[in-house]
Amino acid sequence: MSVLNPLHDLSALQARIAHCTGLVVVCYCAAWCDTCTQYRGDFERLAQRLPQHAFVWVDIEDSPELLGEEDVENFPTLAIQGAEGNRFFGTLLPYISHLERLVEQLQDDAGHAVVAGPPLLRSAVA
Q1: Would the N or C end of the chain have less CB density within 10 A of its end CB?
Q2: β-bridge partners, 60
Q3: Which tens digits make up the pLDDT trace of 35-50?
Q4: How far from chain centre, in Å, is Cα 58?
Q5: Under DSSP, is residue 121 helix (H, G, I), strand (E, B) or coil?
Q6: Domains of the chain with bracketed CATH
């Protein structure tokens, strides 16, 4: 599966999230961020390797409503969401292997949810 962008692919994103039984993995970045630019290719390749999950790229300046009241101070900031809520929200070092291990861990831990974090994309883009 490819990485979806709510600014450019809203209808595809809505359809993908509606039918996704896996996690929703959201990367919050900015177009001016060099780290984000470098990270994006790895994020897209990870999305191809893990098609059971929905991968979403959100530019925080173009779609701030998808971040809610949360602030992004460092990049990349990621949210990993399950049907029951946010399972992870925070900054990771820009090594895709860190995200891959976290996704693998969280996909097997269905009961893990955190309270803090951005609104669930399943609701925000519906």
Answers
A1: C
A2: none
A3: 999 999 999 999 999 9
A4: 8
A5: helix
A6: 10-124 (3.40.30.10)
